[in-house]
Specification:
This protein has eight helices and no strands. By secondary structure, it is mainly alpha-helical. It starts with 12 loop residues before the first helix and ends with a helix.
Length: 191
């Protein structure tokens, strides 16, 4: 009986172990999405936004970028929320440390806990992974909304998305130094 179990019996044990580990990865992704929303909510006060803006003014890379919330019904809002935290992560982290050190209320300890959680391997890996998946699927979603789309073009685009997402397993896409974006990968495969 596998109902309610996170292990599915398969032909060999190595396959069972891989399937058994899937819920942990899903939790990591869910936790990453929750932390993105938590960071957005944490910096929703004007006082904390000022600390973040001051930190951003010192960092040229993420200057003038604000954190975004997601909307469950708008796919592109997920991409915007992930992209903007990914871009401003250094400033967000540094701001959280400053708030943690200077705010002796409950918000200071919240800032310290959030800062620690944003520096874990799991969070950073999932943030990068989600950015790439959402970039690929956002392009696909926009293509499907075109008035000129037909069923054959849609099928071809589905295959492109599958290839692009499978490409995320490849070393050349995962290594951050290479910096091929999901958008570039999707459109290079669409040609």
């Amino acid at each position: 009986d596998i109902v309610g179990s996170d292990k599915i019996p398969l032909a060999n044990k190595s396959e069972s172990l891989v399937v058994a580990g899937v819920p942990a990865y899903i939790n990591d992704i869910r936790n990453t999405l929750n932390k993105i929303q938590t960071a957005y909510k944490f910096f929703s006060s004007h006082k904390r936004q000022d600390v973040l803006r001051d930190m951003q003014s010192q960092n040229e890379v993420d200057r003038f970028r604000s954190l975004k919330s997601h909307c469950d019904t708008r796919w592109s809002s997920w991409l915007a929320a992930v992209r903007d935290l990914r871009t401003t992560l250094d400033s967000v982290y540094q701001s959280l440390i400053i708030i943690d050190e200077n705010d002796h209320s409950v918000h200071g300890s919240d800032a310290g806990q959030l800062a620690s959680s944003l520096q874990t391997f799991s969070f950073i890996f999932c943030l990068e992974f989600l950015y790439r998946v959402f970039t690929i699927t956002d392009c696909f979603s926009k293509d499907l909304q075109s008035a000129e789309i037909d069923i054959e073009t849609a099928r071809r685009k589905v295959k492109i998305v599958i290839t692009a997402i499978e490409g995320l397993r490849s070393t050349y896409v995962v290594i951050p130094h290479f910096r091929i974006s999901g958008h570039q990968l999707y459109h290079s495969l669409a040609r």
